[in-house]
């Protein structure tokens, strides 16, 4: 029986793939590296840490369809925000522990679609981090009853919680606006009308202020409220009244 492939055995193929991917990069320190299908790993591993470690400024890394079964040796990538690893053979908490150690502080989008994660508990290493988008499409775990709720409870969805807090504050603000006593609002409108009338009386000629009760659609957040509206007309409009 042939010996198992040793870690790093695919490094020559990985190095060629990485060189080709960064060849046309606009900067000497690329921010995006796409290696989808470039290498079919015989070891089930990523290249040696030194190969990817050359690019600490990477913000996006995609390694789809590479037959990966382990993420051991994933180097420290302190700027990485998006990691795409679909169509591989990944499973177990150890793989995600490697992700958390490599880029957990900055990672926001993680694509694990069509891998072999079968239990929500395997996702536990992501819990302390701020992953906003987690793709588990076609992973066995998606067939577990209530897996979405379990994943939501496990992972700290910081951005989602922030949005929820903003939504609650907005609703409370609208509720307070709707609860403003109508008597106070009408009193305010009467004062404004009196002020306008006083201003008109001081101008040349006698003006007339007409008060009308009209239907409004935006009154204190209500679509069926009534409010005072003011219209000022010169005396001749009413026949010199």
TrEMBL record:
GO terms for cellular component: nucleus
Q: What Gene3D superfamilies does the record point to?
A: Ribonuclease Inhibitor
Q: Which Gene Ontology MF annotations are present?
A: histone binding
Keyword check for Repeat: yes
Mind telling me which InterPro entries this protein's record contains?
AN32, Leu-rich_rpt, LRR_dom_sf
Q: Which residues form the signal peptide?
A: none
Query: What keywords is this UniProt entry annotated with?
Result: Leucine-rich repeat, Repeat
**Which PANTHER family does the record associate with it?**
ACIDIC LEUCINE-RICH NUCLEAR PHOSPHOPROTEIN 32, ACIDIC LEUCINE-RICH NUCLEAR PHOSPHOPROTEIN 32-RELATED PROTEIN 2
Name the protein family. Belongs to the ANP32 family.
Q: Could you tell me what this protein is called?
A: Uncharacterized protein
Give the species.
Answer: Oryza nivara
Taxonomy of origin reads:
Eukaryota, Viridiplantae, Streptophyta, Embryophyta, Tracheophyta
């Amino acid at each position: 029986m042939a010996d198992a492939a040793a870690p790093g055995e695919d490094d020559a193929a990985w190095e060629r793939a990485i060189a080709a991917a960064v060849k046309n990069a606009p900067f000497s320190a690329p921010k995006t590296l796409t290696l989808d299908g470039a290498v079919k790993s015989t070891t089930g591993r990523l290249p040696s840490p030194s190969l990817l470690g050359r690019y600490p400024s990477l913000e996006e890394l995609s390694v789809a369809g590479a037959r990966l079964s382990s993420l051991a040796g994933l180097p420290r990538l302190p700027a990485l925000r998006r990691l795409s690893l679909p169509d591989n053979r990944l499973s177990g908490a150890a793989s995600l522990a490697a992700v958390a150690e490599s880029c957990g502080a900055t990672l926001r989008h993680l694509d694990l679609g069509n891998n072999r994660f079968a239990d929500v508990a395997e996702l536990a290493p992501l819990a302390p981090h701020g992953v906003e988008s987690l793709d588990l499409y076609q992973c066995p775990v998606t067939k577990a009853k209530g897996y979405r709720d379990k994943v939501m409870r496990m992972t700290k969805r910081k951005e989602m919680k922030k949005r929820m807090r903003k939504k609650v504050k907005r609703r409370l603000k609208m509720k307070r606006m709707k609860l403003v006593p109508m008597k106070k609002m009408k009193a305010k409108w009467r004062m404004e009308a009196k002020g306008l009338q006083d201003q008109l009386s001081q101008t040349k000629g006698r003006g007339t202020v007409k008060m009308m009760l009209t239907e409004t659609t935006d009154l204190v957040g209500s679509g069926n409220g009534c409010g005072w509206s003011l219209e000022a007309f010169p005396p001749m409009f009413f026949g010199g009244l």
